[in-house]
Every structure is written in structure tokens, then in C-alpha cells.
Amino acid sequence: xxxxxxxxxxxxxxxxLGSVPDAVEPAALNLEPGPRVMVVGDSVAHQFDGDxxxxxxxxxxxxxxxxxxxxxxxxxxxxxEANNYLVHGWDSQHDAQGATTIKNYLHLPPTPEDPGRGxxxxxxxxxxxxPDVIVAVMANNDLNNGLAGTRYGIPSIRDGLHYFxxxxxxxxxxxxxxxxxxxxxxxxxxxxxxxxxVKIVIAEITSQLVPGWIRDRFNAALVTxxxxxxxxPVTVAPTDDARWSQPGFTVDGVHTTPTGDLLMxxxxxxxxxxxxxxxxxxxxxxxxxxxxxxxxxxPNVRTTRHRIYLNWARPARANTVLGVRVELxxxxxxxxxxxxxxxxxxxxxxxxxxxxxxxxIQGVRVTMRTPWSPWYDARIxxxxxx
Length: 386
Hints:
The protein is of the alpha/beta class. The chain has helices at 7-17, 43-46, 54-64, 122-129, 140-148, 157-164, 166-194, 212-225, 258-273; strands spanning 36-41, 70-71, 95-96, 133-137, 199-203, 234-237, 298-303, 308-313, 323-330, 336-338, 346-348, 355-365, 368-369, 376-380. The chain has two domains: 7-273, 3-Layer(aba) Sandwich (Rossmann fold); 298-380, Immunoglobulins (Immunoglobulin-like, Sandwich). The protein has nine helices and 14 strands.
């Protein structure tokens, strides 16, 4: 569904406040053709300003197969809220939010320990958008929080695993997995309470912050702990992959790069294709290739009597480009100076001798790098004689 002002905009505000206005008419919000698909989850589902996103790649696979689809949900923006995707004009509606846990989707009162509980209450959202298919990409944060011990008041399981070994950690890990899966099951029950016929695709967790054997154990349990019913089938999308630990597929071991978007979209599409009477009529074939990260960085270069100053337009908020690398060349000597990663949108050189210089910049987000910008010329004028 394309973003609409009015009822949908009010709904987004109401969800943030924990209530849904009675004036929203679900039938008026779901007029586009095709099965209604709603993506829910954490930042792996939400993604960031300046990304293509795997949701875009999935939408393009539906388009390639000429399969009608209507992505629905109260939001259309990326994490950072600037709605500044690298590509626009696609159906970007969703119900995902960065830093979300499963509890955020349940009808639970907030607590001092977990003030975000219930802020995305799935039941009124289901009633409003009436999805036929739920794609759930979550539990990464739930599992990480459990392993950190923040939910149980116990020493960190992750630290204990490091110091005391797997035998010490296993029973505690099993308890964390049991608790998270119980919350997942409650979420699915809430979804089915609105639509008993809803089709559900659950993504395996992929976070490389979670040790591989724990991911394997959790993902294997998804099949048995979140079962299908006669009218509401569940498939588990095979999203966990050894390539997430390789350079170029994630920014930080968790969030996908433009290259990783293709892998994630393909695996989610396989989960959708595995549903009975699948919305995707043919086996997904999303190309797997290296995709550069290309948010435009446009430096404004100026000089004073002694320094070169740069100021650049960020393509979106800080989630997109966390820093910029600067390369400065003295044309006369060929000396190259590389600046540190700068987190502010400005940079200035050291005091320079008079002469001609060239400067360029490169955007940085953790492990990702943009291509270098074109070279820009700058001149430090001769100092006036005294």
C-alpha cells in the first residue's frame, strides 16, 4: 500500500501513543490489488535511511514475476524516519521498528525495566491493515537481551560462556530460547486472533552477535514451537547463512549491506514461496551479486588564507553515513594526507602552505564504504607580504 496522509498518518501517531483511533476504517486502507503482506520486526526488517533495503529487493521480485502484492502497515519510512531510501517509488509500507522486541508487539503494559512493551500492539494493527501474510523478522534483540542477562537479573550468559564454557551456559541458553519462543508463540496467537487464516513466514535469526550453535538451536526450534494450523500455515524462511559472517554482507554482523539485501530478500522469498497457494507463483531468482553503496555525498569546498574547509550534504540522517574519510593531495609535492573519519558534516585541514590542492571524500558506515567522490580543486593563496 502506498503511503496516505489522513487516516494512515493518524494511525502512525496513535500507535506511537499506544492507542488506535476508532475513526480508521480498515476497508478504506486496503483497496490495492494482490495479497496484503505485512513485514514486522526489528532493525533487520526496518533497515536504515540511505539503504536500498531487502524489502525493496523483495518487492522487485514480485514485480519480476508479475505477481500482484500489496505491502501494508502503518509506516513507510526507514530507521531514521527521513524516508530517504536509495530508491523511491516502490511499495514500502511495513510494521517494523528498529530496537524492537517481540514484547513490543504484545498487548502488555510497559514496565520500568521494559518501557517499550506493547508500543506496537499487533492486534489493532492487524484489524486495521488485515494482512493475508505476515513476514516476521525478529527475535534477534530478544535473544541478545536474554544472553546479556538483562531480562533475568543474572550474570551475562555471554560472559559466562566465555569464562566457564558451553557446559555452564547450555541450561541457561535453553531457558532463554524457551522464553523467547513462548513470546513468539504468544505473538502468533495474537495475529491469529484477528485472522485465523493468516499465512505466516518466520525468518531464522541471523545476528552474528549470537554464537552459531545458539542460532542453530533457536532456529531449529522455530519449526516445532510455532506450528501451522489447519487454516494458518507457517513456514520458516532459511535466512541464516554462513555468508553473514563474511565481509561485504553485513554492516556490523547484524544489518545487511546492499549486497546482503539480495541474500536476505532471496531467503525471505523462498519462505513466501513455500506457503500453500503461494503469493509468488515461481521459484524466486533474485540475483546474488556485489552491489555498491552509493549515497551521494556532495562536498562544498572553500578556502581561507591558511586552510581548506569541507562541508557536505548528508543524503539522510546519521544512520546513513556515520562518518566521512577525507583525502587531500598537495599538487606540487604529490603528498597525500588522509583524514580520520569525521562524524560531523564539516572538516578542515591543518594550516597549509600556499599552493594548489585536490581533495575528495568517502562516506563510511561501520564496515561499508561509498565510492570516492570526484576530486575537487582548492587553492591556498600566497600570504600577503608585510
